[in-house]
Amino acid sequence: MFQMDSFQPTADNSRKFRQALGRFGTGVTVVTTSTDDGPLGMTANSFSSVSMDPPLVLWSPSKFSKRYPHFERSSHFAIHVLTEDQAEICNGFAKSSNAFDGLNWHYNETRTPLIDGCLARFECRKSACHEGGDHMIMVGEVERAALSDGSPLMFFGGQLGSFGCFEQAS
Q: I need a labelling partner for 160 at 20 to 30 A (CA). Which of 19, 20, 118, 134 fits?
């Protein structure tokens, strides 16, 4: 019989709670915005679709991140869904807000930095923010989207991996 370890999340077992959350495999994204000092990005796996009409997506940055104030102030951001061979990009933006060196990227008409070669990209105008404990839930209305073929970079149990090659439906 399958045994589950049931517990109530508390400050004393926050590591165990994080491990439970890590049992949900997610795709990996890099979210970018523009600042007075240039482009800025951060790795995030807290991405989800919200609505088809209007086209809405969300992501949830930590309010304790040094990068958070830039996203809080910005009116636009872009969410880039990474391919299985973009782990270096994921790790670069996890460590540094300015990991654009060596990447193919450009600004769009709203001066939002866009990384080329991703699996999908969502160019958003921030439409709402909601308190979510130690994170902020940022909802963006998608003004433009792009997609390409490939396999996603995945995050599961604290590790990066791939889902494997498969054919996309048209």
A: 134
DSSP, collapsed to helix, strand or coil, labels residue 15 as helix
CA gap 108, 85 in Å, rounded:
24
Cβ neighbours for 40, distance < 8 A, ≥ 6 positions apart: 32, 33, 34, 67, 70, 97, 98, 113
Identify the sign of the CA torsion 41, 75, 132, 54: negative
DSSP label at residue 152 = B
- DSSP sequence for 53-121: TTTEEEE--BTTSTTHHHHHH-SEEEEEEPBTT-HHHHHHHHH-S---TTS-EEE-TT--EEESS-SEE
Per-residue pLDDT tens listing for the chain (170 residues): 678 888 888 888 888 888 887 777 788 999 999 999 999 999 998 899 999 999 999 999 999 999 999 999 999 999 999 999 999 999 999 998 789 998 999 999 999 999 999 999 999 999 999 999 999 999 999 999 999 998 899 887 777 778 665 445 44
Residue with tokens 């070669």: 117
Fold of the 27-156 domain: Pnp Oxidase; Chain A (2.30.110)
